Model the fold of this input.
Amino acid sequence: MSERAGTQAVPRMPPIWGKRIPGRNKHFTGRENLLEELRASLESTTTAAVVPLPQALQGLGGVGKTQLAIEYAWRYRGFYDLVWWVPADQPMLVPSTLAALTNDLKLPSASSAGIEEAAAAVRDALQRGDPIDRWLLIFDNADEPEEIKDFIPQGGPGHVLITSRNSRWSGVADTVPVDVFSTSESVAFLRKRLQRDVAQKEAERLAGELGDLPLALEQAAALQAMTGMTTDEYIELLSQQTRALLGASKSTEYPHTMTAAWQLSVLEIENRMREAAEVLRCLAFFGPDPIPRDVFRRGNKSGAERMGPILANPLTLNKAIAELNRFALVKVEQEAGTVQVHRLVQALLRDSLKKEERDQIRHEVHLLLASGAPTDPENTADWEGFANLLPHVRPSGVVQCPDEDVQRFGIDIVRYLYRVANYNSAKSFGEEFLQHWTEAGGPSSGNVLRLRRHLGNVLWQTGAYTESYTLNEKTLDLMREKFGPEDEETLWMARTYAANLRAQGNFHEAFEQDKASLEAHERAFGPFAPPTLRAINNLALDHALLAQYDTALELQRLAFVEQSSARQGVSKWDVQLAWNGLARVVRLSGDHASACDVGEEAYAHGIRELQIEHALTLMTARDLSIAKRRHGDLEEALDLIQETHARLTKLYGPDNPETMAATVALSNTLRQAGMPEEAMVRAREALPRYKHTFGEDHPFTYGCMINIALLYRLRGDAQRAKEMDEEARAGLLDKVGRDHIYSFSSTINLASDLGALGDVHGACELGAQVLDQIRNFYGPQNLLSLAASVNLSIDMRAVGEAEKGNALYESTMAQYEQLLPPSHPERMVAAKGERFNWDFDPFSL
Done:
């Protein structure tokens, strides 16, 4: 749309108009020069190809900064394709507000990318002007610049407005001072608001008494309009109230005239409708953001004594809010279903109450929030309800409430933030709640233990495995003592703790933990209940990590069949995990063709139900690329893993465990595709990250060493390869034991290192030893057994045992012909008489 759009009588609405943008103030008056200067400043930076700085509207509370921003948005909306309102008084909530733009900007959703990453992607897209180049962001009530500046677009074709009482924004924005009204603006406002031709001297006198403060003028005019009070009467009452305040030496950061004007309005409300005054006092203890009116509709059974009679009668509540709206003490947005009180009025209301009353009303707000909240943070349909309540959690002081139901609400807030992938906020709230609740109720109170479990999950998702393990280990002990070993909370915690053990590399301990957990689940819930199926899925993973693929496959089939056909209690996440787990175990069992087929279906399900960049979908894509690589579809495997790796790096960064696993898979695929140097770059990227995240002695760390050693041998440095394989093999034998695929792989590769160094007798001896071990564990027709047989036949010929070597090779080829088609890559390697190299790919734990 061209600049001419602004000349339209009714500018068109932008295609993207934020739900949080307040309605236009029909009483807005004056500020014409300020609006024109603001518009000219924004346009000049854009048209002159200068990097546009944000414009910060700065001034005292009640001066009308927010109203000015609202008017700008409405007046100039025709020039923009996107207008978005960002409440910034709680900086930790800014990312989620920005992340809500991902769908409009065709970016990965917050549920797949994480809140912080999604917000950063939105910022970057706006800076680029892709796909929208005419946009307006308004950050309202931003306090400290350092807390949100990283989320403000730096440059780009759009505009940024900031409202703040803090003058320090001058360092990062063009500051636009917003002062009180001029006398002429005050007079014009009073005439417009009172809808009568107020005499000039009368209006000037009233404006002078109120210091031309817009908020005070609004409330004075509303009071006069509602009561018919004359200006002289109002000024006399105002004088009496101000003298009373001065006489009491009341400490306040606000003008005494503002306090007095507010008190006059409240006194009149008290006289006209006591219930309205009670509602106003209640609203003062919410946050300054819009308050969903559903909170009051649902709160009639909250146990709030003061508000109880009002909430029991919806007509009384509606009349009270309407009365407050008429006196300009609240702002009602009918379409949004919200009511809002200016932060200045809230502060004045709270200051006017005695401590006992403040504590009582604040607790009633806690009860209302808890009773008005949705019931299930896991349900995507409930997420908007939680998002609307989130801005009121900290301002209302929920953290200090000892009520169990209110604390359950706090836990649900952490769960909601975890589910929408806002891990930083979930961690912040969780740690804050945990500290206060532990101090108040002790470390073993029920809600403290429940909170600890969810905080442990949050820490796990951020990659803080050690912190998660330490917290969860203690929590499980406390839960067993408090709730009993087969309580639902304890059993859930047991499953989480097993995941901690896997992350520590203690696969056998995790198996024992999950085995006992499954038996307890079956006793508590039955064999096919949703919690039991999750336990079965976990145990299948344990068997796979222990290289017990037959049992893993049996359990994984059961989990997938039951979860994918369940009608309730099983989420899309559960199904995706089980489906991909099935594809992975089929691959590990050696049926690469079927693994590709199952993996393709699982990947399609993830794209369809969870979106292409959801973490579980990307995990499935990585496993599918490995199946394709093993099956010989190198071109498709490389395309898929390159795309998946790029998405994971963009969404989570290179240090995320899923990105790290994709880096390993990419390296292995590059090696098989004939690009060993590129493969080495990726392999060297992965190893230090595994050491840092999982530890020096984790099986996955040793697996990464196996991959690098293989690449060293292929580039001709067999001595370096031997040293790394010896270190990896020793570590694996100690950590997972002799009978494990990781130990077998390191031994097979070490034998090849010895052969490359000319120690053919050592290679032959080690190869024969590991072949016996593999056959005893897997059987003679396992693909690893066949690969070890081919390698041993080569070494046997090298030591002069040609007849035995040829016989072993011929019998092995006969088995390949029975098991695999001629085009299978492993049969083709064997047919050429080439040595097998075995690599490592990590699991998602």
